[in-house]
Amino acid sequence: MGRTIAVSGSASGIGKTLAELLRKQGDEVVGVDLRDAEVCADLSTAEGRIQAVAEVLERSGGALDGAVACAGVTGPTPLTVQVNYFGAVALLDGLRPALAAAEAPRAAVVGSISGTQPVDDAVLRACLEGDEPAALAAADRVLAAKRGNRLYPSSKSALAQWLRRVSVAPEWAGAGIPLNAVAPGVVRTPMSAPLFEDEAMFKIMNEAVPMPLNGYADPIVIAEALAWLVSPANSHMAGQVIYVDGGAEATLRGPSVF
User: Fold this and answer.
1) How far is the CA of 165 from the CAs of 113, 162, 170, 180, 258, in angstroms?
2) Which residue out of 85, 152, 216, 243 is catalytically annotated?
3) Calpha distance 83→4 (Å, rounded)
4) Contacts of 137 (CB under 8 A, 6+ apart)
5) CB–CB of 79/152 below 8 Å?
């Protein structure tokens, strides 16, 4: 019997590849994206998040075997904080009761190696306090100070810390729902394409994310890891951020961090 799994960001990149993989395995996928998805909704807004949750619940009949928050954006813009953190958290929180109603529910998010890089403390703190207006105000200050490159790491670091906090709570682990993350290194997707096309950015990327094992990854590499995390085989992993990054995290942080 196939399972029913919601996947945000299903129209492109890692989300699209994951949706295709799950469907090949016989699962029913309820995709969520701005376009070309079963549920078309904008996860950067409160209204869009409510709509996304409501339509996924309607399509799943109130019971959901899995949910994966893949939707994300990059770049020096407050949208990064809105989608990567608040959109992902609202989607998973909203779908949690439907996951709890399933026999073997699983959930996962897409983090990033960037979550280990320097962040803006005010953005990070506001995210973890669930204060979106404060987070966006802090993001505006970051942009005004010409430190916009810290917004993406801030959003991904906040997401990883949220996951670590809630994954072992009664509402998640206590309800039998494993919640984990895959943190990719550099993945060849439409979102990362500009980095490969800009010679200066390409050099910066290679220095920031060294990947000694097999270099850059294709989306299927990340999709395979996510598919396992939301499979019935994963019965006891909770709160883990799995770096599928060609060895970047181990290279950058060294052996004393594990």
Assistant:
1) 19, 5, 11, 11, 17
2) 152
3) 23
4) 126
5) no
For residue 152, indicate whether it is catalytic: yes
Q: Is 43 within 8 Å of 91 (Cβ atoms)?
A: yes
Q: Return the structure tokens found at 134.
A: 């404060």
pLDDT digits (tens, 9 = 90+) for 9-55: 999 999 999 999 999 999 999 999 999 999 999 999 999 999 999 99
| Phi, psi of 184, rounded to the nearest 5 degrees | -75, 160
User: Could you give the angle at which helices 151-166 and 132-144 cross, rounded to 10 degrees?
Assistant: 150
Q: pTM above the 0.85 mark?
A: yes
For 71, residues 6+ apart whose C-beta sits below 8 A from its C-beta are 8, 9, 15, 32, 33, 43, 83, 87, 88, 91
Nearest residue to 109 (alpha-carbon basis) of 157, 63, 49: 157
